[in-house]
Amino acid sequence: MIIDWSYIDDASNGNPVLRLELLRLLRVQVVSAPDELSRLVSSSDYEALSALAHKYKSTARTIANTPLIEALLQIENNCKKIISLRQIAQNTAFAKSFIISPLTENETTDNEKQCLSNIQDQIKICKLQCKSVAQQVDAEIDRISPDVEP
C-alpha cells in the first residue's frame, strides 16, 4: 500500500525540517506498535489494548493506510467484546435472579477465545502493514534527509 503523505505535508506546512521530524515520529510509532499490541495481549489487559489500538488507528489515518486502520479497528472492537463478555460473566448470578437467560460459562469462554483469536490475527496484519509503512517512511526519510540535514 502506498502511503498518502498529504497529512504530513499539510502538518509540516512546507517546512522540510518539521516534515522530517514528523516522519521520524511516525516511524517510531509504526515500529513499536506491533510489539506493544502483542505485549498487551499477553498481559490480557484488554482495556489498555483497546485504547492503544484506538491511538494507533489515528496514526494510521494520517497516512490513509486502510488495511492497518481496519486491523486496529477490529482489535479495538474485539477487546470491547471481551470486556463485555467478562462483565456478563460477573453478572451471571444477578441475571439468574431474573428470568433473563445469561450466556453459559462455556458460551462466554468460547466467545472470548474467538475474540482473542481475531485479535491475534489482526495483530499479524498490523505487523505486516507496520513493516511496510516503516520501509516507506525510511525511504522517504532517506530521500529528503540530504536536502534537510547538513
Map the helices and strands.
Blueprint: H1 6-12, H2 16-42, H3 46-62, H4 66-90, H5 92-96, H6 105-148
Architecture overview:
The protein is mainly alpha-helical and 150 residues long. The chain has helices spanning 6-12, 16-42, 46-62, 66-90, 92-96, 105-148. Helix 1 (6-12) crosses helix 2 (16-42), helix 2 (16-42) packs antiparallel against helix 3 and helix 4 runs antiparallel to helix 6 (105-148). The longest helix has 44 residues, at 105-148. The radius of gyration is 20 Å and the shape is elongated.
User: Which oligomeric state applies?
Assistant: single chain
Helical amount: over 70%
CA gyration radius, whole angstroms:
20 Å
Strand percentage: under 5%
Low-pLDDT residue intervals, each spanning 5 or more residues = none
Number of strands: 0
Average of the residue pLDDT scores: 88
> Which class do the helix and strand fractions yield?
mainly alpha
H/E topology pattern: HHHHHH
Distance between the termini: 31 Å
Number of helices: 6
Shape: elongated
Describe the biggest sheet?
none
